[in-house]
Design a protein that fits this description.
The protein has two helices and 31 strands. By secondary structure, the protein is mainly β. The chain has a single domain, classed as YVTN repeat-like/Quinoprotein amine dehydrogenase (Methylamine Dehydrogenase, Chain H, 7 Propeller). The protein is globular, with a radius of gyration of 18 Å. 49% of the residues are buried.
């Protein structure tokens, strides 16, 4: 394994509180084990984040090649272009900014708990905010549809919420076991979300109709959600160390490990490969054709919290110990 490392001054950060989410127990859920193998030799490119006590949290890739990332406890949004990191001031410190997505116009949207808003940063760096009207705000993941609509998990409002043409639209799913966390949008505009405490995946149709799907494993704690190129809905199950796949009404579960590996971050490549982070192993994982391959990151304390895939098939990750990294497409396809 080789690594290209760019390292400015660095201080060791604390672990992101949201990374563990307070979830420590591991349940033996339903499903089956995928075949696990050790990854081939891989070359990683990493960029150490200046002011590393402020942790890279969410990551997203734009159609223009820009890589965006949020910084927990930082007052800026990071953008990586042409091998150079720049910081775009937000005016306020960000607190658990776990939602981030790039928009078709080159801008990026992010969850902004401290400002009680969902915010947009333009290519120029200008930040605008859409305020939320609840007395408290706790936001999960965020996604942008092909039509530019912004979707986000509004846990405090029990809502899979949408910003469309400047209007805030809430799709309420009032579950006694808690609000949504993960969000993804299909090409046809259908939104999908996870209910961590409810062990459900929720669908919001283009007509606004909301439908919930119960997961077969109890106490599975579904988190991140992503859409595959074939329309399948993929999701992580934190406590059962599994990856789920929903097609129609059918759900499959692929067990990654019996141990608590800390699944976090999810993205699906154009070839259908499913990529995810393993926080407690310092690795990226790939599920393809029923086989799981681990790619160990080059630093022993690495903690990849989120993943994204760019237009060229490179796999990007935000490491909460202070790095933005990339696994080149050629290595990812091995």
């Amino acid at each position: 394994m080789s690594i290209t490392l760019q390292r400015p001054r660095l201080r060791r950060p604390m672990l992101l509180a949201a990374a563990g989410g307070g979830l420590v127990a591991i349940a033996a859920g339903a499903g089956f084990f995928a075949l696990n193998t050790r990854g081939p030799s891989a070359h990683f490119v990493e960029y150490a984040v200046h002011e590393a006590s402020q942790m890279p949290t969410a990551i997203a890739t734009g159609s223009d090649g820009a890589v965006w990332f949020t910084i927990d406890l930082g007052d800026a949004i990071g953008r990586l272009r042409d091998g150079r990191i720049e910081f775009l001031p937000t005016g306020l410190k960000l607190i658990e900014p776990v939602g981030l997505a790039a928009a078709p116009d080159g801008s990026a949207w992010f969850t902004d708990n401290a400002a009680h808003s969902v915010s947009r940063v333009a290519v120029s760096g200008e930040v605008t905010r859409i305020p939320l009207d609840t007395p408290s705000v706790r936001l999960g993941r965020l996604a942008v549809g092909a039509n530019g609509a912004v979707w986000f998990a509004e846990g405090t409002g029990y809502s899979i919420s949408e910003i469309r043409d400047g209007r805030l639209i809430r799709h309420i799913y009032d579950s006694p076991r808690g609000g949504p966390y993960g969000v993804a949008v299909a090409p046809d505009g259908t939104a999908w979300a996870s209910l961590q405490s409810g062990d459900q995946i929720v669908r919001v149709g283009t007509d606004g109709a909301v439908k919930a799907f119960d997961l077969p494993s109890a106490a599975s704690v579904p988190s991140d959600v992503a859409i595959g190129p074939d329309g399948a809905v993929w999701f992580l199950e934190y406590r059962t160390n599994s990856i789920g796949r929903l097609v129609g009404d059918d759900i499959q579960e692929f067990r990654v490990d019996e141990r608590a590996v800390g699944l976090s971050g999810l993205a699906v490549a154009a070839d259908g490969a499913v990529w995810f982070g393993l926080l407690r192993e310092g690795s990226l994982g790939r599920l393809r054709d029923g086989q799981i391959v681990r790619f160990r990151l080059p630093r022993s304390r690495a903690k990849p919290y989120t993943v994204a895939i760019d237009r060229d098939g490179n796999i990007w990750y935000a490491d909460i110990t202070g790095y933005i990294g990339m696994l080149p497409a050629a290595d990812a396809k091995q």
